[in-house]
Amino acid sequence: MKDSIINLKEVWKIYELGKISLEVLKSVSLKIEKGDFAIILGPSGSGKSTLLNIVSCLDVPTSGKIFMEGEDVSGLSEDELARVRGKKIGFVFQQFNLLSHLSALENVVLPTVFQGTPREEAEKRAKELLSSVGLGERMKHRPAELSGGEKQRVAISRALINNPSIIVADEPTGNVDSKTGKNIMEILKNLNEKEGRTVIVVTHDTELQKFANKVVKIKDGEIEK
Amino acid sequence: MNIEYFKIALRNLRARSLRSWLTILGIVIGIFLVVSLLSLSEGLRESVMRELRMMGGDMVMVFPGDASDMMTTMIGGMELKDRDIDAIKRARGVETVVEMPFEGSTVRHEQSTETSLIYGVDFERALPILRDDMGWDVTKGELPRPGRREIMVGALVPQDVFPNMRPGDTVTVRGRSFTVSGILRSLGNRQDDLAIALDLQDFREVTGRREGTPLAMARIEPGYDVSEVVKNIEESLAESAIRRADEEEASFSVMSSDTVTEMVDSIMGTIQLAVVAFASIAILVGGIGIMNTMYTSVKERTKEIGILKAVGAKRKDIISIFLFESGIIGIIGGIGGVFLGVLLAVSVETYFSEAHPVFYLEAHISIWLILFGLLFSFFVGCLSGFFPARQASKMQPVDSLRYE
């Protein structure tokens, strides 16, 4: 039996907008096992990004429990959540979210600064990661000088720099053409199969289901059975 | 402390270099004012105090006018008349009275003509007092003798005013010839060292001023208490004024050297306080500039803050980065301000020592003032950056990431 790496129990997320309560997640329970490649699939406004934010400790639920590798993270302070994100989770965003004034290499090294990793060690690893995604020659370039696919590969390298057990990706293929998108998904699949990392991808693109061993469909804040 | 945060902060500042430099300029101006004005006012204080310290403890100074309104006395050209000098002489406990009138005048030596400060001293009565009580002495030649049309020149005259002037040379002051008897040892003050001393009688003759001096010094007879003699002189001057009841009531200030020292110290202290107060306003404005820049920066970089938090930055990490940025603005502003302040102070000093023969202003640049300038600017930078930094650190990662 595989260990459950993420376990959500009856998670609610309610936004209070003046007098209106907006229930974005309604009693969501979800288990993701170690080594899963999970796709969270749903139309826009379904609550899938909110779910991903909660799963990845970027946001906290209104009620319910979240366990990450057995640790209850639902009651953690902001700084403790930052610690969990820094050590256990790597992020890949639709908008890449690279810092424009930093080079590709500096962007990849950035998360290590907050973990206190020695600079030399961090740079060595960053160079290895960038080379492994075919960007060995583009390390000194800034994001503006890179194509969409290259930016996303820099973002993946950044997600891996602290050696996290979980990679979360929010619409990682949303801003690249379909060929590049496929290439990005293959890199993620590779990380899942060869390195045993748990990958969670949020998308509205049903095409991506084929990469996953677990598909979670969400609609109106509820998981479809 | 993390060197990486420092590097991140530096890169962020460079990414917005024009704005960073403008903000730095605000601090430069404030620190520049503090350093330059305090250096110069402290220099002025030191040079006045040094001169006062050379004056013996048994000397009393008498000025016309009220000491609390010295500017009026100086600018208004108020003088002690002969009858006032006589009144001082009559006071109990006064041994000798020295008058020292002065005036700017053209002086010719060989082929060159320059403007110098000339002053009259009674060579017979006053010179021994100046020698014993105020440390006057000659480095070359001899002290001048009365009635022989001799003059004595300040230590810097042969260097800066009339090169190669030697004892025995002839000097013409307003058409009358004098012989240089000696070169005076430095009195510790450039203004005095550039002056030329004439016998009081010669001075009166040359200038055409029969009587009057803006300042007189009285030496106390041994065995008398200074404050007692000060009182005696005041009474004697007051009596003499009452006798001439038809005239306006004259006022005088009689002060012992200690009182003068205290007064000058207090006046200079007030000036320095005012200087610091005005410069502080400039620094405050600079600090507000930093705060404004940092708040703008936090707003602009909302998304960046979200990214930093997503990849593991804690609140203190965000605060550190922003504080480093504002601290760097502060310290660079401080370095610039100290540099320009010292430059101005030194330039003013050089200008007055080279171009201005009469008035002398020296700069006192202390290491403490420089350290204070640097530390204070860093402190202002950090303080101004603190609230924006705290605001940045409180941003929620999800909201920040969504910000466009």
What low-confidence regions of chain A span 5 or more consecutive residues with pLDDT below 50? none
Greatest interface (CB-CB under 8 A), with counts per chain? A-B, 25 and 26 residues
Number of alpha- plus pi-helical segments of chain A: 6
> How much helicity do the residues of chain A have?
25-40%
Secondary-structure-derived class of chain B = alpha+beta
Overall pLDDT level of chain B = 85
Give the tally of β-strands of chain B: 11
The CATH homologous superfamily of chain A is termed: P-loop containing nucleotide triphosphate hydrolases
| Total of domains of chain B | 2
Strand order, sheet with most strands of chain A: 6-7-8-3-9-10
Helix run count of chain B: 14
**CATH T-level fold name of chain A:** Rossmann fold
Tally of DSSP β-strands of chain A: 10
- Mind summarizing the main beta sheet of chain B? 6 strands, mixed, barrel
How helical, in percent, are the residues of chain B?
55-70%
What kind of oligomer do you see?
Answer: heterodimer
CATH class of chain A: Alpha Beta
Query: Termini distance of chain A?
Result: 22 Å
CA-based gyration radius of chain B: 30 Å
What is the overall pLDDT average of chain A? 91
The unreliable regions of chain B are none
